Amino acid sequence: MSAVVIYESMFGATRMVAEALARGIGRHTDVTVVNVNTVGHEFPVADLVLVGAPTHVHGLSSPTTRDQAVIWTKDPARKLTLEPEAPGSGVREWLEGLTSRPGDFVAFDTRADTAELLTGSAAKHIQKALKKAGGHAQSEHESFLVHDNSLDSSELERAEALGERLWTEQLSAARS
Ligand SMILES: Cc1cc2nc3c(=O)[nH]c(=O)nc-3n(C[C@H](O)[C@H](O)[C@H](O)COP(=O)(O)O)c2cc1C
Description:
Elements: E1 2-7, H1 13-25, E2 30-35, E3 48-54, H2 63-73, H3 91-96, E4 104-112, H4 116-119, H5 122-132, E5 136-137, E6 142-147, E7 150-151, H6 153-175
Parallel strand pairs: 1-2, 1-3, 3-4, 4-5, 4-6
Antiparallel strand pairs: 6-7
This protein binds flavin mononucleotide.
């Protein structure tokens, strides 16, 4: 059995969440972490696929918001570093270009630390799109919170624990 974690990230927070989720899953099975730019158009063949992105303008990033993020990294006051793999497309474009039916998945995102009603959620959009394409949400979408675009370390611990729990649940569902 195996799992895949797909992520998009401009400043590193969503990548770190993806890696933490994979650490949790990796206690039990093989897991691959991949940037969305390198996935290709087919939904990965795996027992569980986690898909995550940063929340931009209440939803998924677009070329405009990614350009804005690049501009932010050029402002020293913001203390943000552009992820080496960030240039390119994002989860929005990947979802739009999918050529195969999704399987079991869980959507996640990073977003500001306030009510989802105010911040919006990229994960909510991912979940909706994958369900519409025929995928099965193994669990409700999950958000990890940033302050000034940086994650609290407790969020990474939470992501690791969630990864392990999601895999354990997936295993029991497969056995029943
Ligand atoms: C152009 C832009 C728009 C954003 N809009 C939102 C938003 O609507 N809601 C929110 O919670 N966070 C918003 N953010 C903050 C991002 O969610 C935050 O930068 C992201 O979680 C960091 O993840 P990353 O390091 O993986 O890029 C925005 C960030 C950028 C660059």
